[in-house]
Design brief:
351 residues, alpha+beta, Beta-Lactamase, Heat Shock Protein 90, 3 domains, 5-stranded mixed sheet, 9 helices, 12 strands, 42% helix, elongated
Amino acid sequence: MSEPDPSSLAERAAETAPAALILIDSHGGILFVNGAAEGVLDRSRRRLIGAPLAETGPWGEAAWAMAEKAMAEQRDVFAHDLPVDTPAGGRRATVDAAPEGEGACICIRPWPEGGATPRGDQAANAAKGFGRMLSHELKNPMAGARGAAQLILSSEDGEAVELARVIVAELDRAVRIADRWSRIGDLAPQPFEPVNLHALAHDAVRSARAAAGETVRFTESYDPSIPEAFADPDLVTQALLNLLINAAEAVRREGGGAVDIATRYRSAKPGGTAPEARLEVVVSDDGPGVPPELGDAIFNPFVTGKPAGEGLGLALVSRIADLHGGGVEYDSRPGRTAFHLYLKDAGGRRG
């Protein structure tokens, strides 16, 4: 009995895969589609082979944007919770693209799918296991790093001592957050209290500056008239730090640049994002901007525009904003990106 042809087996597996699989050439021309891809693109294989992927409707446009990025950067890229505007209404999908020869291989998984677990339940179940794992895996290295920082504190080098104080403070805050994940599998705020938003922002800048290096310039522009925020100080500091680090990484990849953090009291419009959250923190940078194909999906877990990012930082910011009855949004173009974090003040407490 002769052994089966591996190429034939691979083609059969691709053909029967439940996800839509598409192979394109360097110009976006379709070389192969499986049965699931015919269904997603709503065209027969005969009409699809040779056609430009970008001209096969909204699903093809979304897939081509990811494939073009994968080919240009010669790396695997993926987007979870990518919005797709179809004639039947808005849909979302996970789209993976990987370089293949001079072209690319693309996998599309639209959702929600029939029989699928509701997204909220999936996220909650994943968060529980992930939270416990995160806490367990982080505590040992954080304890070791804290011990090393304490040794530096006993030195006579003034600059090193100041940096060591930053390290100790950040590690202590990280341990407190990890403890909360361990207990309930999701972020849970401590009882809220009135906090000085400018003090939290200044602490976050101090930590971000220590991590960013000399090519990044930080500026702080605070409105002294705004009231205190009603918040969990650890979680808000973490959200601000994530935004600052993301901005610093964006400008550092361009060889350096400026990051600014500012506060103001906003006049929110009814129906807008978190209209009752009147305190606004804006973190802006002069980097290359957010890839337009990511859209609002950038706040979802595992979605990232960074070459080596994990896609968790902005998801955490969004979760923290939601826990505070606030919100987060952004506007971006090359040379100017601004993330806006909205929080309630101590006089407009979260109900």
